[in-house]
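tool=predict chain=A
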Amino acid sequence: MNDKTAIVFAPHPDDETLGCGGTIAKRIDEGYNVFVVILTDGRHAFSKVLNVTSNPSPEEIKQIRKKEVTDAVSILGVPKSNLFFFDFEDCTLSEYEKEVEQAVTAFIEGHFPDEVYFPLKRDGHPDHQAANRVISRCLQKRNLENIGFQYSITHKFSRVGPQFEKMIGFLSNRMRAVDISEYLDIKKQAVEEFKSETRIFLSNQKSPIVNIKGHLENKELFYKQ
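tool=predict ok
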């Protein structure tokens, strides 16, 4: 048992599992104390994309996704006491960067992490981009850039972006691949907890925005700043 700590910052409920689920399970197995912080309430997951504003309502979606992520990270091994919700309104992080930075700073300073995971700056969602800016600043101000690892959910250049990141990351020695093959089944079980996304997209005859299968591979990739 070691005394290392890892913090995973997720803009929305599910980002932590899709981007880092295998690594979370692996680190916990290695004795890390892993904390998961959900930055927004996830209420607009479907209202912004599918124009679903009732049955379920955004407020209902917020509660559904909170339960789903609680169950998902529990499967990964994260105790409820290590799961935190900052509850900024979904899709508004760029409007509250100062407040988000204060909250993130306090959390980092209170937990002395050895590793910090957060979204890639070139992810497509504005909340992911805002989260990257905020957490990057927090780490830079404390000379902690070396412990920051960025994960990608949906690259803003969806067709060529992922391959570009891999190439640049490899050439610059800024990419780290974590072998999660032993934890892939656990990650799959955790991903399956996000039932609302599958159900609502199917009921609207739409394909999910995130390529879930692309996040269920034997390695999770992370990028240094």
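Strands lie at 5-10, 33-40, 83-88, 115-119, 148-151, 175-179, 219-223. The mean pLDDT is 89.
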